[in-house]
Amino acid sequence: MNTLAKKPPRIRQVPALTRGIAILRLLGRSDEPLGVHAIARALDLVPSTCLHILRVLADEHLIAVDPSTKKYTVAAGLVALAQSALRQHTFPAAVQPELEELARIYGATSIGVEASGLEHMIVVALARSDSPLRVHVDIGSRFPALISATGRCVAAFGNYPREEIDARFAKLRWDSPPTLASWRAEVRAARDAGYAMDDGQYIRGVSIVAAPVRMPNGTINALVVVGVSEQMRRAGLVRIGEDLKNRAARVSAALG
Questions:
Q1: Alpha-carbon span 124 to 85, nearest angstrom
Q2: Cα dihedral 46, 47, 48, 52 in deg (nearest 10)
Q3: Of the four listed, 10, 33, 62, 207, which is most buried by Cβ atoms within 10 Å?
Q4: Domain contains 206
Q5: Is the separation of the CB atoms in 211 and 245 below 8 Å?
Q6: What is the pTM for the complete model shown?
Q7: Residue 110 forms beta bridges with which residues?
Q8: 22-52: pLDDT as tens digits
């Protein structure tokens, strides 16, 4: 019997919504409030159109405007939405107890990151240690999917074409960039070991160890420990990696 391939749903463009999301993303990654013209210039929008969208977002309490400077920032309404999404999402809830224990054992910041294909990794859960020597990370922080130890996990365990991985690798920015050949070798080593390490390549003086969490939909998330290199080396990068591997396998099984 012949069967027709199911066509993907047609997605109609909604320009106002697309622009509104772009504005939220721009304000979310900006370190300072932005005015209408700065936002319009950054997103190539007509200022009057930009202003209308900003007013709607402000009315919905997703952004806030300073009456004196007329500059905009993200508002509590957006934070509430993000927190609600995280509460309902199984991955952050599943990894949080593991992260708390990792932070306590190794005196370093531990995070759970979620993949967005080969675009980005996003921090969706974290635990901080009491150590004065720690790397600061926030919920919502994002970075290129193939960078650092997490990137080696994505390349090693994700089902992505090698050509696409190589093309994206060429655009990555490191403090001490590896060659493509050495990076490929490190990806193979991560596949064999079940975890990956970045000892100061992505950020000088910072060591990162990550292990993949296999999600039910086939994507690769990760458990990560990140800290000052000297402190991480004293704890033992291999020891941390083996611990992460075991915990990531446990989380993967719990998530099905």
A1: 10
A2: 100
A3: 207
A4: yes
A5: yes
A6: 0.67
A7: 127, 225
A8: 999 899 888 899 999 999 999 999 999 999 9
